[in-house]
Design goal:
single chain; alpha/beta; D-Maltodextrin-Binding Protein, domain 2; eleven-stranded mixed beta sheet; 11 strands; 22% strand; C4-dicarboxylate ABC transporter substrate-binding protein; TRAP_TAXI
């Protein structure tokens, strides 16, 4: 049974886009569901807030559904079980190529990009009391939490750790559960791949001392050479535990829609999101990167025609060959 968090459109916002009530909504669904990820992670916080924002402004009720994250969201959007979702470029590319572990051989070609979200840093966190201050410090056989099974973190981080010579016991769970397990000493490390600040880390560092571990230059080079990630610095002011920026790697996130969703609905959703960044940042700080200038970070998915129309109208180039 699905666990849904339905968010009613019951309030009024000062950030409304151009009125849409007078437009033809006859082909719009009565409501929509957005696939996010586990509670305690950025996807759920960002996605719940975005669904509420859309509901407030576009006269359509929406909700955020707890899922296994980017890989599962690709499958749910492909099949139409949910019409919208959040994903990262690595799982998106693998899913389109038929390499999803959730549906081997199924080429998920009816999933379209809507707008850029933010970069997902891959970061490692341990309790300060553990003495683990670097990846080299992680002891052989350490229990490492990699997030929900099938998530971006679970798909890529174990392979990254193997590339860096770490011997570990793999653990899965929601980010909030893994944070609790780390605090209780049931696991040694959590390998987070989520937009920053990660709610579970922010909560942890209020309750206990944590080490947010950077990659060395050599470690970052090994990882970027082998995986679809790039270098990234977690700013010092992201967490109170950081004394300086944390050097890690990251992967881009995009919102997605089933390609059969009406163009006019996707156009209005994209317009609302791209033209109200202050409101998006109030939902989650990671949305500072939810801006149209990052349209070129989509390297894996075709564009939904409704989204492409907004970007083109506002001077951003999207070739015809990239539109579904």
């Amino acid at each position: 049974m699905r666990l849904r968090t339905l968010i009613a459109a019951t309030t009024t916002t000062l950030f409304a886009a151009a009125p849409v009530a007078a437009q033809d909504h006859s082909d719009w669904p009565e409501n929509f569901t957005l696939g996010t990820a586990s509670q305690g992670g950025t996807y759920f916080a960002y996605g719940s807030g975005w669904a509420n924002f859309v509901s407030e402004n576009l006269d359509i009720s929406g909700g955020a559904e707890i899922t296994g994250g980017p890989m599962q969201n690709m499958a749910l959007v492909q099949t139409g079980d949910v019409k919208f979702g959040l994903t990262t470029m690595g799982p998106a590319r693998a899913s389109r190529q038929g390499n999803s572990p959730l549906a081997p051989g199924m080429k998920m070609e009816n999933v379209c990009a809507m707008f850029p979200m933010y970069q997902t840093p891959f970061s490692v966190t341990a309790l300060a009391a553990s003495g683990i201050e670097s990846i080299d410090d992680i002891p052989d056989g350490a229990k490492i939490g990699f997030g929900p099974a099938g998530s971006t973190s679970d798909t890529y981080f174990p392979k990254m750790m193997e590339t860096l010579g770490v011997d570990f016991e793999r653990q899965n769970g929601s980010w909030s559960d893994l944070g609790t397990q780390l605090q209780d000493g049931l696991i040694d490390v959590v390998a987070f791949a989520a937009g920053i600040p990660v709610p579970a880390i922010s909560q942890l560092e209020v309750q206990t001392g944590v080490n947010i571990i950077s990659f060395t230059d050599e470690e970052r080079q090994k990882v970027t050479n082998k995986f679809p990630v790039s270098e990234f610095t977690i700013p010092k002011d992201t967490y109170q535990s950081l004394e300086s920026g944390s050097e890690v790697v990251s992967m881009w996130n995009f919102s997605i829609a089933n390609c059969d969703v009406p163009d006019s609905l996707v156009y209005e959703m994209t317009k609302l999101t791209m033209e109200n960044n202050d409101r998006m940042v109030s939902i989650h700080k990671a949305a500072q990167s939810t801006i149209p200038e990052n349209v070129d970070k989509n390297t894996a998915l075709p564009w939904h025609p409704g989204a492409a129309r907004w970007f083109r109208e506002n001077g951003y180039e999207i070739p015809d060959s990239r539109i579904q």
